[in-house]
Specification:
This is Histidine triad (HIT) protein. By secondary structure, the protein is α+β, with helices and mostly antiparallel strands. The protein is 27% helix and 17% strand. The longest helix is centred in the middle third of the chain and has 22 residues.
């Protein structure tokens, strides 16, 4: 039983899309990797430099993430936000834990100019590999301890 009740969704019957990226079965543009969490660019960015912070363990709901890991994810999101500010000079960095697209907890860390930018309907589903690679490298260049390209 978890803190929310008996419907524990922390155990998944099959790998999530994010687990497949983390395991290397699908490509990912990583900016961070450690034993507990990773960060990589989404293939459908709302704005250039849109990063997902994801626990390695496939925990479905953010309320089920253990407190220490949640704090570590938040700190990583903050460090990525600092790197995004340096790389892209946005007005702000938006942070969203929506959790509806993939049943694997993730934080969206998004360089934004206004609240209007926090709209998933605005995602660029046709972002080029070159633009994603360039955004990932720009973040890595400003993120101490970043994952290698």
């Amino acid at each position: 039983m978890n803190e929310r009740g008996p419907d524990d969704t922390a155990e998944m019957p099959q790998p999530t899309l994010f687990s497949r990226i983390i395991d290397g079965d699908l490509p990912g543009r990583f900016v961070w990797r450690d034993p507990d969490k990773v960060a990589f660019l989404t293939i459908a960015p709302i704005r250039p430099g849109h990063v997902l912070v994801v626990p390695v363990e496939p925990i479905d709901h953010w309320l089920d993430v253990p407190g220490g890991l949640w704090a570590d994810m938040g700190d990583l999101a903050r460090r990525i936000g600092v790197a995004q500010m340096a790389a892209f000079s946005p007005n702000r960095i938006g942070l969203i834990a929506a959790g509806l697209e993939v049943p694997h907890c993730h934080l969206h860390v998004i360089p934004i100019e206004s609240e209007a930018d926090l709209n998933f309907a605005s995602a660029d589903t046709g972002a080029s590999g070159e633009s994603l690679d360039a955004a990932a490298q720009a973040i890595r260049d400003h993120l101490p301890g970043a994952a290698p390209a």
